[in-house]
Amino acid sequence: xxxxxxxxxxxxxxxxxxxxxxxxxxxxxxxxxxxxxxxxxxxxxxxxxxxxxxxxxxxxxxxxxxxxxxxxxxxxxxxxxxxxxxxxxxxxxxxxxxxxxxxxxxxxxxxxxxxxxxxxxxxxxxxxxxxxxxxxxxxxxxxxxxxxxxxxxxxxxxxxxxxxxxxxxxxxxxxxxxxxxxxxxxxxxxxxxxxxxxxxxxxxxxxxxxxxxxxxxxxxxxxxxxxxxxxxxxxxxxxxxxxxxxxxxxxxxxxxxxxxxxxxxxxxxxxxxxxxxxxxxxxxxxxxxxxxxxxxxxxxxxxxxxxxxxxxxxxxxxxxxxxxxxxxxxxxxxxxxxxxxxxxxxxxxxxxxxxxxxxxxxxxxxxxxxxxxxxxxxxxxxxxxxxxx
Length: 389
Ligand SMILES: *Cc1c(COP(=O)(O)O)cnc(C)c1O
Description:
α4 packs parallel to α10 and α11 packs parallel to α13 (374-388). A hairpin with a 5-residue loop joins β8 (191-192) and β9. The protein is 38% helix and 19% strand. The protein contains 13 helices and 17 strands. With 389 residues, it is an alpha/beta fold.
């Protein structure tokens, strides 16, 4: 029986998968079971920020596996303390909670916003609503699905959670109208990733922060996709010149071990107290070791400047392709608008020619490893050019 047959016999069919079995990887290149190689510009959806099996990263995870691979959060570990201190130094957030995924980081953010409001204004205030944006994506758990502002996700699993209000992205009037005194948080992505690499406008972001300051609402940035160096700053909030009360990270921050981090600023860093939240695996030593290896590398100014420069180079190259209508995003988060062709068809053609990438709505989406080389960018772009012919 082939791997694909065995897989499909036993694993739920929740994904439309490409008929490729990936077996190993090195640098920015993956290899399938037949030895065919692929340049990877998807990075497992922006996860493998240092590419495949980076030496330093793999050493850090292996060393940790041989020292202590897991302990419950009823005890302390040095690696979790070291990782938290490093994240704190890099982001300026003093407090954080560790979970295992983007959805869990967002669940934690939602719980903090609601409890912050509960503690301060009481249960009778009914100040529990969270504004999220139309076309957003916040995860697949019931709460984060409820938060996600796309009707296609609000199906089958009724009843969804109440307490989420959708505002149109970049519509300041809509935001002003809906940010009433029932609202305790406003959650948003600076660049909507799954929603099609759609950046928010600076004026809209400024209005979110103005309203949050005026009404004691928590500003919650979902940086699960945009964070950890992806856009050329460690946090994309820096590019917008704002400091959210809460920022969530996941995907790329630990380079391929599962993690989710909910960062909280001084206003709400102590809202969650003993017994109010938890996670068996959260802050797992392997995840923290992988995370520390990533953050040590990607947080330096030189590294982040390179991400910006590579992103600029990539955009320039892509815009030279006649079939490309435009390129969106920041740094190495790239959405390609196509003139006539279907993103899914182009993605498939690239796969056949040895290039892995993603789509988001009608666009091609590229989230290459952050240490991708200029040469690899040129090689990948050449494949995209040929696929678009
Ligand atoms: C991927 C993603 C999530 C969900 O992360 P999981 O790890 O799949 O739970 C949440 N928010 C954003 C912006 C994402 O891109």
